[in-house]
Automatic annotation (TrEMBL):
Residues 181-336 form the Aminoacyl-transfer RNA synthetases class-II family profile domain. GO terms for cellular component: mitochondrial matrix. One of its GO terms (biological process) is tRNA aminoacylation. Its main location: mitochondrion. Keywords: Aminoacyl-tRNA synthetase, ATP-binding, Ligase, Mitochondrion, Nucleotide-binding, Protein biosynthesis, Transit peptide. Belongs to the class-II aminoacyl-tRNA synthetase family. The keyword Kinase does not apply. The keyword Zinc does not apply. Its EC number is 6.1.1.20. It is an enzyme of class 6 (ligase). This is phenylalanine--tRNA ligase. GO terms for molecular function: ATP binding; phenylalanine-tRNA ligase activity; tRNA binding. InterPro entries: aa-tRNA-synth_II (IPR006195), aa-tRNA-synth_II/BPL/LPL (IPR045864), Fdx_antiC-bd (IPR005121), Fdx_antiC-bd_sf (IPR036690), Phenylalanyl-tRNA_Synthase (IPR002319).
Amino acid sequence: MAVVSSAHSTIFSKTSLFHHINGFKRFTFCLPFSTSAAVSLSAKKKWRQPVASSVLELGGNKIAKDDVVRDDPTNNVPDTMFSKLGMQLHRRNNHPLGILKNGIYEYFDTNYPNMFDKFDDLCPIVSVKQNFDDVLVPADHVSRSYNDTYYVDSQTVLRCHTSAHQAELLRRGHTHFLVTGDVYRRDSIDSTHYPVFHQMEGVRVFTPDNWEASGLDPTSYAAEDLKKSLEGLARHLFGAVEMRWIDAYFPFTNPSYELEIYFKEKWMEVLGCGVMEQEILKSNGRLNSVAWAFGLGLERLAMVLFDIPDIRLFWSTDERFTSQFSQGQMGVKFKPFSKYPPCYKDISFWINESFTENNLCEVIRGIAGDLVEEVSLIDNFPNKKGMTSHCYRITYRSMERSLTDEEINDLQWNVREQVQSKLNVVLR
């Protein structure tokens, strides 16, 4: 049960949900490997997108770029996403996401010794069944659309949430587990949204031996244990904070809740959770059982705990960022290095019926990569002929250097060309 990350709209948000199949069946587990998407550039050189290796090794198997990024009408995975596969920021002990993951592990290891199995290397290439059907996401839910999800082909996706592994682990006999991994969502561009982010999912299964002596029905017993466990986790991460539970809706849990804490003088959502639907348990061999599940976004919590202002920084290899964090040092406050100036460029066009903002952001991100800080709609009006015009402001800013007028103009020119040709809009 995963809350899709950071400030992302996710499978645990109110607005969107928490093949070559033969070729991918064997890619069940992924092993770490050393790679870097960083490019060393001087301010005088034009910026270019990092070039990904054409072959990755995941789970001891080689995956070619052509296996993931294809010229196929059912494929919408851009080159930039292939370059992120296998980066596994959550497995780096000196990275804020790895530090946070290990801090959560510490809580569960201390309070539930030798109970929870941990998985942080499961392959992000999964079937549509794993990603949606197995966790009861409705067939008509918006999260299944090509506008929201990266499809390798019609039956294979880059996982949208770590819940994609829940059914498989239950079938394999795991009753207490934590799953951490990178997840992928087509999304907007701003300081809290990124198309790759990281989640942790937790599941605990109970049998009649657990609840019968309590005097509670199975659902109430699981809900009470869930709240006690997660309130303890919140105190472990944030200290003695005020908390409140909000009733929520997720298709895979009932009842469902969101945990909020009062932190830095405002209420902040920490995670989504609930008592797992019986259909999931029964279809995966867990008869006469009840379970709870929770999901949280690592970036969302790490940005607060480490005072990291921009989600792009998690991907930085700049030593001024990476050197500030050390294994086991939870909550060290990030000290910003030089704030480089932004550059604003506007683009206006008449939209068509198939236009979506996510598609626009994919085009812009494919050209400018992490040099684009934000894309925002600043004007929207219809004309007398029934056509609608949108004007978007693109904010370009590097986190590591000053951008030159020449490279920004080149980027904007390419954006205009690609927006017109790929989205079939009429520039104004």
